[in-house]
Amino acid sequence: MTRWTPSQVTEAAPDAASLAAGRKLAMPGPWRDTGCNDVLVWGQCQGSGKTPYQVSVDLTGPAYRCSCPSRKFPCKHAIALLMLWSEGVLDESGQVAAFAEEWATQRADKAAAPAKAAEKPTDPAARAKRIEQRLARMDAGVEDFRLWLADLVRSGLAAARAQPYAFWDNAAARLVDAQLPALAERVREAGSQIHARTDWTEHLLAEVGRWWTITCAWQARETLGVDEMAEVRVAVGWAQSSEEVRDGDVRPGPWTVLGAHRSDDGRLQEQRTWLAHADGEVVAVLDFAGYGQALAVPQLSGAQLDVELSRYPGHAPRRALFRNPPAGAESVTGLPGRTSLASVHAAAAASLGGAPWRDRHPAPLADVRVVGEGDHWQVSDASGSLPIMTGAPIWTLLALGGGAPVDVFGEIESGAFRPLSVWLDDRVVGL
Amino acid sequence: MSGVEQWLGDVATAALVGSARREPPPIPAALGVVTDDEGHAPEHRLLASAALADAVTRGGAGLQAAGGPTHDAPPETREACSEAAAQLVHLLLLQPPVSMATRDELVVEWLRLAEAAGQRAPFAVLPALLEFAAPRPSVARALGGVIGERGAWLVGLNAAWSATLDADRTAPVGSGGGDDWTVQWSTMATAEATAAFAAGRRTSPAAARALLEAEWDTVSAKVRGEAVVALRHGISAADEPLLERALDDRAKTVREAAAGVLSLLPASDRADRMAARLRGLVRVRGTLSRHLEVEVPDPPDDAAVRDGMTPPAKGGGPPPTVWLAQVVRGAPLSTWTEITGRSVAATLKMVRDKDVLASLVEAVLDRRDAAWALACVEHGVPDPRLVWLLPQEKRTDLLVSWVARPPAGRDLGRLLVEVPRPWPDELSRVVLGRLRGEGATTSLARAAAPLLPVALSPSLAPAVTALLEQVPADATHLRRALTETLQLHAFRTSLTEAFR
User: Fold this and answer.
1) Cα–Cα distance between B63 and A387 in angstroms, integer?
2) Distance (Å) of CA A356 to CA A352, A353, B355
3) Would you place residue A116 in the very low, low, confident or very high pLDDT band (cuts 50, 70, 90)?
4) Smallest CA–CA distance from B64 into chain A, residue
5) Residue span of the structural domain in which B109 resides
6) Which of A117, A142, A233, B156 is deepest in the core (most CB within 10 A)?
7) Alpha helices in B143-204 (DSSP H)
């Protein structure tokens, strides 16, 4: 496993406080019995108590384990240990400490258990029956949702706005029961946006239209191709298991990391990493982590990863997953597929044809300026300009570019641009 | 396309009021959509229209026109700092390894080192640096040229930053060496004129005085008063004629200000007049001539009022002790030794009246007289301000002796806060010595602990390490302070190395 860079360690920390605490512990003083090999890093840290804390990190997960009572993952001890490792001061030759080995074995056993279960010869008839039951429940749920939508527009959106949040929440709960979680999420989100936005009528009307399209697509699924059906499955929330995908449509590297975005809605953290292949294919790798869990280590923008990606079915840009842990990070400074705003915008519009409910498109922009003032900024080139999303790190963008044209990678979402990385002559800076 | 736009509007209206009340509009042929609308219920047609409208709106949206040209940031004249230095400031700003209190000082130190090396902060760190400096005047003042052309350009774009930073960064009017401010001074607004005069007085006292003399009758009383107060800086005998003139000013505030400033000039005519008043009040008494008897003065006459003494009023005038205090503060200190014919220390011993002594101490502070200050301190006057008038060596000696054996009635903690940092080694060592063992929980330890990280010079690291081993485990605040001291020293070392 390649040693992490200090900034990768930084990214792994759950919050700034843990990071600061970890940094203070990242000196050899309190540590003993430290060591590392390809997959494990371990050590014992003397805390305030009598017994030192036993810390182990599995780099492949990554997964963390520490005998301290902290409920943060990773805790400050694990962060400090990773910092020491990243500085290259840990012994790589020694015997794995007993506590680390024991933990690693437990993890390996646990990981093997479900695999064993999966290997059990499944009864094809039983499996077909399960799918049939699920489809029946989803069909009924979609039909029920269509009735609810028809009621909604019959009485009008103005009336819907007067409804309490429970109105939306109940509809969402019924969708969850019908195993349509992604639709449910959209309905809940709309229910909270309706009072948060000034343009709620336009927003809600558009959302309702997309929900309707999704239900129509679902009901017509017999007529859809594989990729179209995959998009519909994403839209309703019928996940494709990663086991199914892993050995499916594999494409070897090198893949260049374009940029990454992290979001946290309080319950779920999401990390979206955009990657490009030499021929211009762009995919997104999604990682999720629940509250208190650690997201996968972010890849640095501009890194060229020697890794195989397994692509999910669907329209471009497709979702993908790392088939093996990414390794060998050479970095490049040329933004792959760099192009004008107009052509990115046109591509985003064209992609609506395949999945009209999708609303995010990668945007590798060549030579754009950042213009504007106050709270209103745009990316701009000769072909036009696009507003930059509020909350984007506009000042870092300006500081790096200095007003001159610069290559920027980002996403277009709801008609606005979210910058994710800046591609300078000599380096790439993730935002 | 106006047909389509009309249709989009109609769909929105129908959806808002509901298809039960408003028939959904037919899809315009211009969109080329094949529908079998006829047999469907209105709400289904409305839903299909909503879906189509969304796709049309998003797919058909154009880009906004290309943004207007902006001015680019000018090219940099300075080299960027080293990678190591960049990492250090990044660390300080985003994940400080030290307590918040010492972080500001370290950022300032980083800026000073960069300024001294003629380097600039890297572009990527500028937003965090400016955001950090904006609400902190001490940091803002240290920015100097370190933010480079790019930083100045960013400040110009960000109203929140330019509001606070431009005021602190740009040199005050008149300090640039030019005399421009003198030309417009008489026409400036009060606040601006006051600030300009204060700045001008600091750089060129004589020119400022000449200007005030020339414009005396044209500027407002408010400006005259503030300007007279500003004469404190760089005061000399040459200012006396102007101040004498100010004593006759129409405005009371100006007269009072002039009297106050004249107190700072021990050789002035006013001081002589005050000395004459004082001589009339003080007598050497006692069989061994060992004490001074001080009488309260009569109500001041017009000449005394002109010199700044409070005028008597019928019925409710000030108590005579107020006049006495004014005379004591106004007279030169030498008047006292002339009256007694003895040394400063001996003279002080003869002053028995507490109020007179207090006024005398104020006079010493006004004049910044080191000899008198030393005599007062040795006499046991606890006023900490006197300590700062002493020559540095003398002051260190005193502090060292006080730390070793704390005198009653002195707040050592407060004194230590004000000692310029880093502390002299001698003082550091005696403080560390007092913190050992039992000393770890004294009030001195509580007062000194937060100061240690910034006050101890790095050469004392071995002493700090040694002390840390002797501090009891339960003296957590002291342990933390000592640990932070060591961390800070390590950080400082890497700072200096990064700019080598």
Assistant:
1) 9
2) 4, 6, 88
3) low
4) A385
5) 79-169
6) A142
7) 148-157, 159-169, 180-184, 190-203
How far apart CA B180 and CA B187 sit, in angstroms, is: 13
Q: What is the pLDDT of residues A189-223, one digit of tens each?
A: 999 888 888 889 999 999 999 999 999 999 999 99
Domain boundary among B33, B60, B87: B60
Q: Nearest 10 degrees: CA dihedral of A83, A89, A91, A96?
A: -10
Contacts of B19 in chain A (CB under 8 A): 153-154, 156
Residue A56 to residue A35: CA distance in whole angstroms? 10
The answer as to whether B30 is a domain residue is: yes
pLDDT score for B37? 61
Region label for A384, one of left (φ > 0), alpha (ψ between -120 and 50) or beta (otherwise): left
- Specify if B68 maps to a domain: no
Q: How many domains is chain B built from?
A: 5
B159 with A352: Cβ contact below 8 A: no
* The pTM of the whole model exceeds 0.95: no
Does B97 contact A150 at a Cβ distance shorter than 8 Å?
Answer: no
| Other beta carbons within 10 Å of B4 | 16
State yes or no: cis peptide before A14, omega within 30 of 0.
Answer: no
Same domain, B164 and B204: no
A371 touches chain B (CB under 8 A): yes
Residues B460 and B411 in one domain: yes
Mean pLDDT, consecutive 10-residue stretches, chain B (500 aa), reads 84 92 87 74 91 88 75 87 89 78 84 91 92 88 89 88 69 45 80 84 87 89 90 88 91 90 88 91 82 87 88 80 90 91 90 89 89 89 85 86 79 79 85 79 79 82 84 80 83 84
**Predicted pLDDT of residue A51:** 80
**Separation between Cα atoms, residue B311 and residue B317, nearest integer Å:** 8
Sheet harboring A53-58: ordered strands across? A31-36, A40-45, A53-58, A63-66
Q: Is A302 in contact with A427 (CB distance < 8 Å)? A: yes
Do B390 and B372 contact (CB within 8 A), yes or no?
no
Residue of chain A minimizing CA distance to B126: A399
Q: Tell me, yes or no, whether B287 and B346 share the same domain.
A: yes
The last residue of one of the domains, among B325, B352, B387, is B387
Q: Are B379 and B313 within one domain?
A: yes
Whether A255 has a pLDDT exceeding 70, the answer reads yes
Give the closest of B18, B62, B94 to A153, CB-based. B18
Give a yes or no: residue B125 inside a domain.
Answer: yes
The answer on B251 and B274 residing in a single domain is no
